[in-house]
Amino acid sequence: MFTGIDEVDWASLRHAYGSAEDVPALLRGLASADPAEREIALDGMYGSVHHQGNVYDSTLACVPFLFGLMARAEVPDRGGIVELLVSIGEECAAPGHAPADTVVRAGAEAFVALAGDPDAGVRRAAPGALVRFLDEPARVLDVLRQRLTVERDGRVLLAVTEGLGQFVRRHPGHAAAAVDLLTAQSAPPYHPGLRLAALGQLALGAPDRLPADLVPTVVRLLRDRSEQRRGGPDRAETDTLVGRIRRLRPSDEEGSHLLRTLHTALGGRVTDRTALLSGQLTSPDPIDRCNAVWMSAALFREWRADHSEPVALIGAQLWAEQDQLRDASVSVLSELFELAAPAADDLAALLTERPGLRVNRWERGAPTLGGPLKALARSGDPRAVPLLAEVLAGPVVPDDLGHVIVHLGGSAAPLAPALRRGLGRVALDSPDVTDRAVPLLSALRALGHSEAVGEVLRLLRGTPGGPGPREAVAAHAVRTLGSFGPAARVAVPDLRGLLNTGCAAVAAGALWSVEGDASAVLPVLLRELTHEQSGRRRAAAAELARLGPEARPALPALRRMTGSDRLRERMSAAYALWHNAGDPEPVLPVLRSAWTENPRTRGTTAALLTEMGPAGAPLWDLVTTELASPRRHTARAGGYGNHDILKDERLLRRCHEVVGDR
Predict the structure, then answer these.
(1) Is the pLDDT assigned to residue 130 strictly greater than 50?
(2) Are the CB atoms for 497 and 472 separated by under 8 Å?
(3) What are 33-39's contacts with CB under 8 Å, separation 24+?
(4) Whole-number average pLDDT of the chain
(5) Best CA proximity match to 544, nearest among 596, 500, 581
(6) Using one digit for the tens of pLDDT, what is the confidence trace for 250-284?
(7) What is the pTM for the complete model shown?
(8) Backbone phi, then psi, for 631, in 5-degree steps?
(9) Is pLDDT at 83 greater than 50 in this prediction?
(10) What span, in angstroms and rounded, lies between the C-alpha atoms of 652 and 623?
(11) Maximum distance among all alpha carbons in the chain?
């Protein structure tokens, strides 16, 4: 199996970390008698030779040896080798080399024999390999059909079922017989897990063959399966990437995969998915409920709907005895912001009963807010205010506290004095001054607590606006002073001193807020509007918008800026043009192109359309189309993205404000 391995010039080949001269040792490690050594070798293959799914010249050079290892019955854990080959074959090869799938496909005949291998792990990996790489559909289907009749290992049967589903999607011209097999497997007398797998594959490839009572059927099968579930075999515990990933997986990984497949297949059928989640979240089995909590996150992030029922059921999980279930529920709720309101009673009660959950304390670094308190505050529930006051009274203010206070609106006003004191305690020479100060500044700015002028000035004078992280602190301090208006008049000399720094635009804007003298700030903003750095040009346009008609001398430059090849510059210029001139003609084309070119601009665009009123009517079609869409505007496959829910809910509110009752 290693014939010719020493004849390869591995040193001239590359992987993720440079020379591939260490690859022969990894390949030999895959055949070791020591389970830990095998896993470390597989870790190395994924960590360097096939790093993050990439295929290098050394990856392709490994393929013949991986096939050799796979074919030797005495090599343990060959299923992992088959999975590695499949993963390699699904990716693009390094430039100048044969496609990776072609290289793996050339040896696909070997996968046929593996379908009946004595090792169940190999048999489990073989169906997917056969479907992907053997270009003989009729033969592949025959092999899968045969395995269904003779296989007795439940996990292998699940893999065969998944292989049939892949076959349906990959070979639609030969799919009818495979669909019939899946339909038969989805009904009695098959095991509940196998029936769930078949239903998931039908949902992906032949939804017309699903039963009319799909959701009740799935919930019933899930509960039947949970009653019969048994733990899998023990595996060697190793400090490797593979080992760590395995320990992070759900304790019922198989069940999680089965239900996730169904949720993926149902896609935008939100009503069905919500009902399915409700069934999962009321399961007697806490493992099923924990899987459901994690699956709910993808639904919430991707689809707009009334999520109050599953959110309330997630709130009920906070009282579970299992830490993993409670922690999963807190994690999901903390990313829902206002949508977490149906769980607010449970969050508030939990924080009252278990005050230790209000703050997370770490061996190193400052404490952070506990997840339940963060979730309650982000939901806007005023019951978080007295709890946050107790946290603020502590010796160290959690770094993230200021970020959640902004979601409490005016109800957080009683916290302002404590926030001011917290800002006054920030060490100016601390390396984490940015992390400590910026959240507090944001909170004080949101609350308009002008009594904090002295503390903000202290911070500004101690962190001058030079390049680097401290420039961000200075910019936030300046914006905060500007938000205080004339109450910050004592800061005028400091603000004037920043008019020739990287904070020039925001300092000019703050001066305008404090003094209202356009002649003092307009020359600075006009200069910044032509700066070589795009960020400074955008900042100048944003501040010019606040000057209104007083900024008319900037109109020619702003009109030119709407022709920039940078979308964010065009948006900043359009925003300023409307506020400075009130002319929709140069503004509307920029807003329309931005809306379609980058969905993340829609929130800003909708806010401006709200201000424009009837003048924005030519773009109302975009708003009505957005409101009719069931999918979140920043949704990504799989529902990833933490703050996208908040941004999308704000967009929806703004869109409703634009069109009103029309």
Answers:
(1) yes
(2) no
(3) 33/76, 35/76, 35/77, 35/235, 35/236, 36/236, 36/238, 38/76, 38/77, 38/80, 39/77, 39/236, 39/238, 39/240, 39/242, 39/243
(4) 92
(5) 581
(6) 468 899 999 999 999 999 999 999 999 999 999 99
(7) 0.87
(8) -100, 140
(9) yes
(10) 9
(11) 87
Choice between 395 and 369, residue whose per-residue pLDDT is larger: 369
In angstroms, what CA-CA distances link 270 with 137, 266, 342?
35, 8, 19
Contact (Cβ atoms closer than 8 angstroms) between residue 93 and residue 99: yes
| Cβ atoms < 10 Å from Cβ of 107 | 18
CA pair distance 403, 394, nearest whole angstrom: 18
Contact between 128 and 159 (Cβ < 8 Å): yes
Distance CA 23, CA 2 (A): 12
470-522 pLDDT, tens per residue?
Answer: 788 999 999 999 999 999 999 999 999 999 998 999 999 999 999 999 999 99
Close Cβ partners of 57 (under 8 Å, ≥ 6 residues apart): 13, 14, 20, 94, 97
Query: What letter does residue 359 receive in the DSSP assignment?
Result: E
123 vs 115: CA distance, rounded Å: 5
Q: How far is CA 587 from CA 570, 605, 652, in A?
A: 9, 10, 22
Q: Is 563 exposed, middle or buried (0-12, 13-18, 19+ CB in 10 A)?
A: exposed
SS3 content of the chain, % helix, strand, coil (to 5): 70, 0, 25
* Confidence at residue 638, expressed as pLDDT on a 0 to 100 scale: 55
Give the H or E element holding residue 360: strand 359-360
| E-only strand ranges, 63-138 | none
